[in-house]
Design a protein that fits this description.
Elements (H helix, E strand, L loop, with lengths): L3 E3 L11 E5 L5 H18 L6 H10 L1 E7 L2 E10 L3 E9 L8 H15 L4 E7 L4 H7 L3 E5 L3 E7 L2
Parallel strand pairs: 1-2, 5-6
Antiparallel strand pairs: 2-3, 3-4, 4-5, 6-8, 7-8
């Protein structure tokens, strides 16, 4: 299994080749395109409209992280937080990188970040029909509610 670390963690010998690196604005197009390709089937399923400008605006106020292995970009994640929770706004891997344990390691890294930031919760929303929902359940997230399209999930940190 791949292990993830991030740039302001203490890095020890248990960490492997997967790294979360702060994404500069030059990565916005990559992240937007990856997100659109991953999410467009769900947008169509639920009759939602993809708006590129909304992604670009959110890019400016969220934390953006590249998921990397050596010099290879595997995907990206986008985060925000309030007083209670670290929110996973986006978590997308390139199709050829899925099923390798990378997503699991990113989730565990983000749980450590929430703990380091003294936040009691890790939260996200996922489309009801997205198979990633099962990944989140396996990593201790519970379903807190839903609407026509999304399931709200959270994991207690502690």
């Amino acid at each position: 299994m791949i292990r993830c670390k991030h740039v302001y963690d203490e890095i020890d010998d248990e960490d492997g080749p997967c790294l979360l690196v702060a994404a500069s604005d030059v990565w916005r197009t990559f992240a937007r395109d990856l997100t659109r390709r991953a999410m467009l089937p769900y947008y169509r399923e639920f009759d939602l409209l993809w708006i590129e400008q909304a992604f670009d605006e959110a890019w400016g106020w969220r934390e953006q992280w590249l998921v990397m292995e050596g010099e290879t970009v595997l995907g990206f994640c986008s985060l925000s937080q309030d007083r209670q929770a670290l929110f996973i706004r986006e978590l997308h891997l390139l199709p050829e990188q899925r099923g390798r344990g990378v997503g699991s390691q990113v989730l565990e890294t983000l749980a450590r970040w929430a703990a380091q930031r003294r936040l009691p919760l890790l939260r996200l929303m996922v489309f009801k029909s997205n198979p990633a929902r099962q990944l989140y359940l396996r990593h201790g997230f519970v379903e807190m509610g839903e609407d026509d399209c999304f399931v709200r999930m959270q994991r207690v940190i502690g």
